[in-house]
Amino acid sequence: MIRSTEEFRLVFKAARRAGTPLVALRTADPASGMAQVTASVNGTSEQTPLLSWDFIGGLQGRNDAGKSAAATVLGENQPSVGPAEVLAAAQRIAQDAVIFFLNPQRIWEQVDVVQGIWNLRDVFKAGGQMLVLVTPPGATLPVELQNDVMLIDEPLPSTEDLAQLVADTFESANL
Fold first, then answer.
1. Residue 12: strand pairing partners
2. pLDDT digit string (tens) for 101-148?
């Protein structure tokens, strides 16, 4: 069981280093979880294409390399595409890319979505890409994915993390 933010980063970094293509990140705070994953990319977050997909925003780059990768895959207009379409398009994503897929638990039982996730396994393993399924705590993977997706639970902030957050807040407010 992961007990600290630092341990979470180390586990994620090890998964990335091992070439794990499919990860389910169970987190109470998706923004924090994505920030922790981004921080674990080991200082290469500007060169590594970081993208995210959600139901409203579609596929978007989270950094310049990610924006370029999204434009390459979807074209310059970057139309809002559905979950199955983005999973199919992700097979052409740049090497080493990390794609955050938000709230997949709402739709991953659909045949085209579960197949789209599974189809990325071998493609992403070969190219070093990673699909991060961002879910709430307690989400259960469909039976078709349980042997192919690594589960990582982001811990709640520790006392030290909260102390740092309070200190940073006070410093930002010039107090």
1. none
2. 999 999 999 999 999 999 999 999 999 999 999 999 999 999 999 999
Name the DSSP letter for residue 80.
-
The per-type count for the chain, helices as H runs and strands as E runs, is 6, 6
The position carrying tokens 């280093």 is 17
Spell out the CATH class of 5-172: alpha beta
Per-domain boundaries in the chain: 5-172
Report the run of H or E that residue 26 belongs to, with start and end: strand 22-26
Pick from 129, 172, 161: which is nearest to 9 by CA? Answer: 161
Report the C-alpha gap between 175 and 160 in whole angstroms. Answer: 20
Whether the model clears a pTM of 0.90, i.e. scores above it, the answer is no
Q: Is the separation of the CB atoms in 134 and 33 below 8 Å?
A: yes
Residue 112 is classified by DSSP as H
Distance of alpha carbon 28 from alpha carbon 54, whole angstroms? 17
The tens digit of pLDDT for each residue in 41-59 reads: 856 556 899 999 999 999 9
Q: Which two tokens stand for residue 108?
A: 């991953």
